[in-house]
User: What shape does this take?
Amino acid sequence: MSAGVGVNLENLWIRFGDFVAVRDANVNINGGDFFSFLGPSGCGKTTILRAVSGFLEPSEGNVLIGGNNMKGIGPNKRPTALIFQNLALFPLMKVWENITFSMEIKGASAKERRKRADELLDMIALTGQGDKLPAELSGGQKQRVAIARALCAEPDVLLLDEPLSALDLKLRQHMRSELREIQKRVGITFIYITHDQGEALTMSDNVAVMRAGVIDQIGDGKTIYNDPNTAFAASFVGENNVFRGTVKKVIGNEVMVSTNRSGDLMARISSNNVGKMKEGDDAMLFIRPEAFALAPVGTQGDHFVTAQVTKEEFEGNVFNIFMEGEGGKEMKVSLPNLGQSFESHKGEPMTLEYDVHNAVALPAGVLATE
Amino acid sequence: MPRFLREYFNRNGVGLGSVMLGLVLFWTIGLIILPQLSMLDFSFRPNLPPPEIGGPKDLYTLENYKYLIFGPEGGSQDYNAVDLKVFYRTLIAAVLVTLFNLMLCYPIAYYLAQTNGNHIRILALMLIIPYWINEILRAFALRIIFGESGVLNNLLVGAGVFDTPFDFIRNDIALYAGLGYAYILLMIFPIYNVIESLDRNQIEAARDMGASWTRIHRRVVIPYAKPGISSGCTMVFMLSAGALAAPQILGGPSSLWFTQLIYQQFNDNSDWPQGAAYAVVLLVTCILLVLALMRVFKVNMGDIGK
Ligand SMILES: Nc1ncnc2c1ncn2[C@@H]1O[C@H](COP(=O)(O)OP(=O)(O)O)[C@@H](O)[C@H]1O
Ligand SMILES: [Mg+2]
Assistant: This one.
């Protein structure tokens, strides 16, 4: 990407009294990247963003922007612009005044500001709406005004705190691609916070998965999805079927797990755990719903699972099949709709097979839903 | 029945609705409008001994108003210089007290509204508790503080700031302090109320874009707090201009407050019509002044009620 300004977090700790909100975060964000922090609500995402923007001094560690240590530099002196979760537009200023507030601070004339506002309004497809008040705009329009206001300050790094969470689904999906477009056009670094894994995966160059103040994994979307580092990352990003058990045998990069309810199953060890899993370890095996394919009923083997169909859902492009295995083990399977006639299997057993490469074995850990 | 009334009764029921409506009407009409109207009526009548009231001499007249402007008929001066001077001095002083109050209370209100923590509740209590003491006692306490041999003079002379005690009372400083202090809560709370609902993120957003604290207040906080500021200023101004106890107790001997003139007319001169006319003039002028200022600062009547 273009040579934007990078951001580094070095051994960052943030405490509120005894409570540790961020624990030893180390993150290198390349200049010009669209970088997301992804994690459930309350895991410390906003806290990290506030430390980058300067509203919060880290308890320990450093924030570097463009290689410069930001210690002691206030939010008004940092080359960042923050888009707040609730946007925080100024309700009593007209849209164009909102957008050019940063220029007003620098002493630009009303004429210059008006001109720049019109340019930015064109960019966010709100031409001619500069004289409205924020309250007269729709949710998506306000969203775009907040982006324009932040971009007007010409920051090196744009920080976005769940900016789409207030929008309805359709608008959210539209704004995703719009944000990505804008980021490509302006070429600056975007740091984006979200609890929505779909957002993180579709927009970002790189994603950091967070859990309770700890960063579990940093990588591009494909890596995070296909090769999770921890049980939490595997269960939080996308849907996954979990099989608990113990390691029976390690064969190179693969492992045989003796699962509690579904027999012995083979899986690939996630790459950061290769060499770390031993016989007898508690393990979790993750298989995505779409990684399964139908097999002849009753086939046995270390990459076959048989279970009872309890519910079927037709979603257009896929059939979702919910199954219950031995001992109440629940599973979800998604089969692509290839025009095959799909008759109800409800109440019948079904056997599925998977490619061992698509099953990931990890040391047992906390799951996202727990 | 108009729609809003029907909705009102639907919401509250006929019984409770009638009682509440009755009380509000009694309050506004019986306790406010009627007495004021009778004052207005008084102000246009001559001051007659009781037997002549309602008699042939009891005709509407502008005498009482003329008196404020021109003084007694056949008097030595063209204008009633003394009373007029007291009148405009009172208004100016009330404006000054209001401004001083605003400058003092805005930071307090902002601090109370935008800071979290238990100490805020304690601070608010410390502001409120002194108001449990009645007005007269508070005024006398200030007199003790500001008196010739009062606490303040002892401190200042002791510290060598003044050689001889400074007469805070004759210089009206005690009066302004007393008036200012009497109404700070009425200034703080409306402003506090509004600022409390201001989204902190707006302040942070402005700060993030590089705004200084002065600009944040000028462009973000004050415009937002305007309804509270107007409401506080209106109350403080009206009440200062109409105050009686503080000027009686804390005012210098040579500087009268206009309300003291009104009081003298009613009480010492037993000239109710004259007193009523003075009171009406004060009230109307204050209202006009407030309305004019509201127009200048683009404040709506509805905002004041916020
Ligand atoms: N100023 C603060 N004082 C005390 N605790 C805080 C403060 N700010 C955030 N926290 C706590 O830190 C944790 C992380 O908060 P936050 O960063 O806002 O989460 P997220 O944005 O991921 O939802 C939460 O448990 C929250 O209660
Ligand atoms: Mg948050």
Notes: The pocket of adenosine-5'-diphosphate (ligand 1) is lined by residues A 16, 19, 21, 39, 41-47 (CB under 6 Å). Residues 81-114 of chain B form the longest helix (34 residues). Residues 123 and 129 of chain B are 10 Å apart (CA to CA).
